[in-house]
């Protein structure tokens, strides 16, 4: 999946992946996709809930070698 911007949140503990995601997605245009890389297991539930509550769409999520990858489309 193509992303308009990639956010590296690896090594950050909750709530920093969400804080950085919010700050970064605010810089994107509606409809653009942000790819987030995180190592915090809590990010799986946190990003899904945050996306839904803030009007964005969690398009895809994946895990590769302990790195969680998320693609969020800005609402």
TrEMBL record:
SUPFAM superfamilies listed in its UniProt record? SirA-like
Looking at the UniProt entry, the stretches that span the membrane are none
InterPro entries named among the record's database cross-references:
TusA-like (IPR001455), TusA-like_sf (IPR036868)
Could you tell me which PROSITE patterns the record lists for this protein?
UPF0033
Instruction: Please give the superkingdom of this protein's source.
Output: Bacteria
Location of the UPF0033 domain: 7-31
Which keywords label this protein? Answer: Transferase
User: Matching Pfam families, A to Z?
Assistant: TusA
Q: What GO molecular function annotation could you give as one example from this UniProt entry?
A: transferase activity
Keyword Transferase set for record: yes
Q: Which family does it belong to?
A: Belongs to the sulfur carrier protein TusA family.
**What's the protein here called?**
TusA-related sulfurtransferase
Give the source species.
Answer: Bacillus benzoevorans
Q: What is the lineage of its organism?
A: Bacteria, Bacillati, Bacillota, Bacilli, Bacillales
């Amino acid at each position: 999946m193509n992303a308009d911007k990639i956010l590296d949140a690896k090594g950050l503990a909750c709530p920093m992946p969400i804080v950085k995601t919010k700050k970064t997605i605010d810089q994107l245009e509606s409809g653009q996709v942000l790819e987030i890389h995180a190592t915090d297991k809590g990010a799986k539930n946190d990003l899904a809930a945050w996306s839904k509550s803030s009007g964005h769409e969690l398009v895809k999520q994946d895990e590769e070698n302990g790195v969680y990858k998320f693609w969020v489309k800005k609402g």
